[in-house]
UniProtKB/TrEMBL annotation:
PANTHER family, sorted: GLUTAMATE SYNTHASE [NADPH] SMALL CHAIN, GLUTAMATE SYNTHASE [NADPH] SMALL CHAIN-RELATED
Protein name: FAD/NAD(P)-binding domain-containing protein
Domain Dihydroprymidine dehydrogenase: 1-51
SUPFAM superfamilies, sorted: alpha-helical ferredoxin, Nucleotide-binding domain
GO molecular function: iron-sulfur cluster binding; oxidoreductase activity
Length: 351
């Protein structure tokens, strides 16, 4: 069973823990009683099966492949190409490979020893990963194109979107992705309280990044409110993560939208919000939230974390503009979140 999993998925152990298991909703067994527990079965198999030794695969092709980004999409491509005999080099700007697996998902959800082991198996195939190298700073994109026959762009979407409301440039306002990255990079520093969020934290958003940021803030001793403009059942985050957050003490305020940020001497002190009601369905298939006039109220906060969406780095945003999986340049390919938008680990592997 493990050999079947590893054929098409380079991260079976990881997926046994953080997969969104949407396939279970399509399982025909559900018409009889309940779907096969695919995620749980995957975890049981990968936790208990003996793992074959991974040995280096000889290079049999003359073409060299450069990959930008050592997240799930980049590493999946590197593994597949190496198994086909190509020489592959991966560049990663952060200290360790893994992308959002390492710097976006907290360790309490994805233990780091599991992540390290699965990445080591990819490296053992012969994949060369160069970390702490930022394309555009330490090596130019033009240099990579000259040195390699083909280039695969998988840098992900590493920056948080802004809300575009008054007061958003004050101190004490963090992007959700930036906060999670810093927490995962410097967890001991945060836990020693050498970095602080303050006592009251509000998180804007309803996705997995918002819930992860809220739960991390809670672990740092803060009282945390998630502000979401639709209903709880409309939140894109995994249901089990939402339930876990509430059980731990995170308060989720639904049908509430931020209006403006207020502060004192340039530092955030409060968030003015407005209650919402649901109107007609919008293009997302969900009912559109409509402001309720006269329902404004203010939350007193020390830190605001904005997790409403993600966007790519400006350099790669320009490069992959108006392209699909293969760019207009036959040497360049792109995949992962930068093409499909921020999504799940499984979709990043497949993208």
């Amino acid at each position: 069973a493990y050999k079947v999993l590893i054929k098409s998925n380079p991260f079976p152990v990881i997926c046994g823990r953080v997969c969104d298991y949407q396939c279970q909703s399509k399982c025909r067994r559900g018409t009889v009683d309940e779907p096969v527990a695919i995620k749980n079965l995957k975890r049981f198999i990968t936790d208990n099966a003996s793992r074959p030794e991974i040995s280096s695969i000889p290079v049999t092709r003359k073409e060299k492949i450069g990959i930008i980004g050592a997240g799930p999409a980049g590493l999946t491509a590197a593994r597949g190409l190496t198994r086909r005999g190509y020489k592959v080099v991966v560049w990663e700007e952060l200290p360790e490979p893994g992308g959002m697996l390492r710097y976006g998902i907290p360790a309490y959800r994805l233990p780091r020893d599991i992540l390290v082991k699965e990445i080591e198996e990819i490296k053992n195939l012969g994949v060369e990963i160069k970390c702490n190298i930022r394309v555009g700073r330490d090596i130019s994109f033009e240099e990579i194109k000259k040195r390699f026959d083909y280039v695969f762009l998988a840098p992900g979407v590493s920056k948080s979107q802004k809300m575009g409301i008054e007061g958003e440039n004050m101190q004490g306002i963090l992007g959700g992705i930036e906060f999670l990255r810093d927490f995962n990079l410097h967890e001991k520093t945060w836990l020693r309280k050498e970095k602080r969020l303050g006592e009251r934290v509000a998180v804007i958003g309803g996705g997995n990044s918002a819930v992860d940021a809220a739960r991390c803030a809670l672990r740092l001793g803060a009282k945390v409110n998630i502000i979401y403009r639709r209903r709880k059942e409309d939140m894109p985050a995994f249901l089990e993560e939402i339930k876990a957050a509430e059980e731990e003490g995170v308060k989720i305020e639904c049908l509430v939208s931020p209006l403006k940020i207020i502060g004192v001497e340039g530092r955030v002190k409060g968030l003015v919000c407005q209650k919402m009601k649901l109107g007609e369905f919008d293009q997302s298939g969900r009912k559109k939230p409509i402001p309720i006039q006269g329902s404004e109220f203010t939350l007193n906060i020390d830190t605001l974390i904005i997790a409403i969406g993600q966007r790519p780095d400006e350099l790669f945003e320009k490069i992959i503009k108006e392209v699909k999986l293969q760019t207009i340049n036959s040497k360049l390919f792109a995949g992962g979140d930068i093409m499909s938008g921020p999504s799940t680990v499984v979709k990043a592997i497949a993208a």
